[in-house]
Amino acid sequence: xxxxxxxxxxxxxxxxxxxxxxxxxxxxxxxxxxxxxxxxxxxxxxxxxxxxxxxxxxxxxxxxxxxxxxxxxxxxxxxxxxxxxxxxxxxxxxxxxxxxxxxxxxxxxxxxxxxxxxxxxxxxxxxxxxxxxxxxxxxxxxxxxxxxxxxxxxxxxxxxxxxxxxxxxxxxxxxxxxxxxxxxxxxxxxx
Length: 191
Ligand code: 5GP
Description:
With about 190 residues, the protein is an alpha/beta fold.
């Protein structure tokens, strides 16, 4: 998506060959108009997939996920990052390893907000190694709900996340796909 690629080139900061900072429009300060445009684009792609709910991982996925949920007319659920707790039968829980921080966290979803009838679209800000998305998939599958697809704002295509997900037959739609990057250099995939 040209709009997002241009924004990344203008305001994103490639720290090194692995980490892109987008604090000024996604991760810390949020550009609302851009988020609406990105949410609408994701909704356009997934509009015929029978989506009943959007799931996102707190916190950077919330803004585009809300915009997409508005466009599709479905609720949004936030998969919450919580410290490990004692077992609770009302919660689905799974451990995810954080790529950026090198730590693990517990991803949690209340059984009140998902049923086996749900067909869920997962939305997140970045796709890198696919750990966050895979954790979200595990939670949704624990609830016996089905997966409509995964919508990503920025995919680092040189990392293995996309392959892991599409090899499971999942529709992964990323609005910007980075082929290669380095300090102050970003190259997008052609397609
Ligand atoms: P994965 O689980 O696919 O390895 O990483 C996805 C998660 O890690 C995203 O939810 C995002 O929070 C974070 N992440 C991965 N790569 C980057 C990056 O280059 N920049 C930022 N800001 N976050 C990233």
